[in-house]
Amino acid sequence: MIQIVLSTLLSVIVPLSIPVIAGFLLGKFMKLETKPLSTLYLYFLSPAMILDTLLKAQLSWHDVTQTAAFSLLNLLLLWGIAQLAGKIFRLSAPETAGLTLISTLTNSANYGLPLILLAFGQLGLDKASVYVVIQMIMVNTIGVYFAARSEFSVQSAVKSVFSLPAIYAA
After folding, report:
1. How many CA atoms lie within 13 A of 65 on its CB side?
2. Which of 74, 112, 143, 154 has the fewest CB atoms within 10 Å, counting from its CB?
3. CA–CA gap between residue 63 and residue 1 (Å, rounded)
4. What phi and psi, each to the nearest 5 degrees, are found at residue 52?
């Protein structure tokens, strides 16, 4: 058991930690501007990796529908729990919306995809990419609705969802 843990640490966590530590040290001692790199990764490199992975993925429709069903069920369950917690703790509408957003939606692409690739190989990355795309669609639709709903009517919140260019791109 301990051998498996150590093997995982050496083969997965250490390779992912090296660029993180290097980036931290470069930022601390060289005062590098990270915004251009973040923008490059967020808008070009990450989508390119996901698109390339999905184009080459060896997945069945069963895998895709199963991942979508899991994502939707997870969203609904966590949404219900967040709403219940909002009522129990008597949170305001914006606080409940914030709790709902952090409880239901994930940021699984930036660190998650490289970790999945190292830990589970290409097949794991194929399946994880489907999950990331579904999460991106949820964030840009349901997430925007959750955030807007705390301040606007249902109709205005739905309109705000369809005003985002990411929805049309998806």
Report:
1. 3
2. 154
3. 30
4. -60, -45
- The secondary element (H helix, E strand) that includes residue 6 is helix 2-8
| Residue-level pLDDT at 80 | 96
Quote the pLDDT of residue 67.
92
Task: State the pTM of this model.
Answer: 0.70
- Going by the DSSP 8-state scheme, the letter that residue 170 receives in this structure is -
Task: Copy the structure tokens of residue 63.
Answer: 């895998």
In the chain, which stretches have pLDDT less than 50? Answer: 169-170
Task: Give residue 170's pLDDT.
Answer: 47
User: Which sign does the torsion angle of CA 49, 52, 56, 58 carry?
Assistant: positive
- What is the pLDDT at residue 162? 67
> How many other C-beta atoms are found inside a 10 Å radius of the C-beta of residue 103?
17
For residue 153, the tally of other CB atoms under 10 A from its CB is: 10
The alpha helices in 31-149, defined as continuous H runs, are 35-40, 46-56, 61-88, 93-104, 112-138, 144-149
DSSP H/E element including 22: helix 14-30
Per-residue model confidence (pLDDT) at position 76? 94
46: three-class secondary structure by DSSP: helix
Q: Report the interhelical angle of 112-138 vs 14-30 (nearest 10°).
A: 80
The answer to whether 58 and 127 are in contact (CB under 8 A) is no
